[in-house]
Amino acid sequence: MSGTVRELVFAEKSEEEKVLISLDIEDDKLFLLHFIIGNYFGPDLHDDDGNKRKQSAFQIQASSNLPTKEELSASLMKRAELERVYYYVLRNADPSLVFNRKVLSRYFNEKRNASNVDFPLFRDLYPLKLHPESRIRNQYKLIKSIVFINDPDTSCMREDCVDRFKLLTGLQSFTLSLNIDVTEVDDEPLETLGNHDESEPTLEVNGVIIADAQAEQMMGLMDIGECADAYLFRVSLPGVKRDERHFSCEVEDNGRVLVRGVTTTGEKQVHRYSQVFKMKTHNLCPPGHFSVSFHLPGPVHPQEFTGSFGTDGIFEGTVMKKLQNQTV
């Protein structure tokens, strides 16, 4: 992160006895990042009757009524979902205003100390004691008690901040057509699997390893890309359930990737409403549990992995490299 930053200040509007939030941040990229995380997300408060409007982190700060642990729900959200909203909001902004994932990691991970007093941090808005982090299967970073707000109320922000945000992003409306789901964590731990040395993807269906030529006809086709500090991979998974209770992706330090889930194709009969179709061909992957495993070109940081499963049947993951001059 670079640029001059000054601390978050509160400006009092005496005639309405209302406190407005002012982001006195000179660097435009830092301003946008903090504005998005503070307005499009907020503490996930208990809502017994279901009628309470969600409040953003900045609304909470402006009200000075900081929640207690008892007032927060036990929901979990993937950090990757916060990043997804950030990139979505800035989808039409100038690329020079968008941070890469490495810098985002610093924003999310760093704690306040003497060396970063000039930078806004995620923990300024979501204190660790109220929003602790955890991991599931060593793959996803989860943050507790945070909720997504697709139509934030920015009346708690000073008008010059709102105008600056609109000018930089080109957005006139704050409403987003995005759905962010909380994460359900299965209490049952996954079994430990042995390592595979193959660099090519290996597909296993119902406990049977499928030969490469046959696998390419069904699923498991894979592409790998890299930049200076990260790897990207895409895996073709047609007919796979996207439900997180059935789907997982694990990344290990040595670069091994293991994707597991359940397929819904290959049935002998397909029921559609009142109709029953008897399948004449069976070229797609048979139904049942499957796994796809392969190796990335080098060692990685599993805790810096983000993944998304698109409706097009492509699972895409990004993970930071473990560079030689880095220490664990």
Summarize the model shown.
The chain is an alpha+beta fold and 328 residues long. Helix content is 19%, strand content 28%. It has helices at 28-39, 57-63, 79-89, 101-109, 122-125, 159-169, 212-218; strands at 9-13, 18-22, 41-43, 76-78, 133-136, 140-144, 146-148, 202-205, 208-210, 222-226, 230-236, 248-251, 256-263, 269-272, 275-278, 288-295, 300-309, 314-321.
Quickly count the domains. 2
Number of strands: 18
* Amount of helix: 10-25%
Question: How far do the termini sit from each other?
Answer: 22 Å
Largest sheet: 5 strands, antiparallel
Overall body shape: globular
Radius of gyration: 23 Å
Helix count? 7
| Arithmetic mean of pLDDT | 79
Widest beta sheet: strand line-up:
9-8-16-13-12
What oligomeric assembly is this protein in?
A: single chain
What is the N-to-C order of secondary-structure elements (H for helix, E for strand)?
A: EEHEHEHHHEEEHEEHEEEEEEEEE
Sheet/helix structural class: alpha+beta
The proportion of strand residues reads 25-35%
Poorly predicted runs are 2-16, 185-199, 211-217
Organism: Brassica campestris (Field mustard)
InterPro entries: A-crystallin/Hsp20_dom (IPR002068), HSP20-like_chaperone (IPR008978), IDM2/3-like (IPR039321)
Domain SHSP: 212-328
Family: Belongs to the small heat shock protein (HSP20) family.
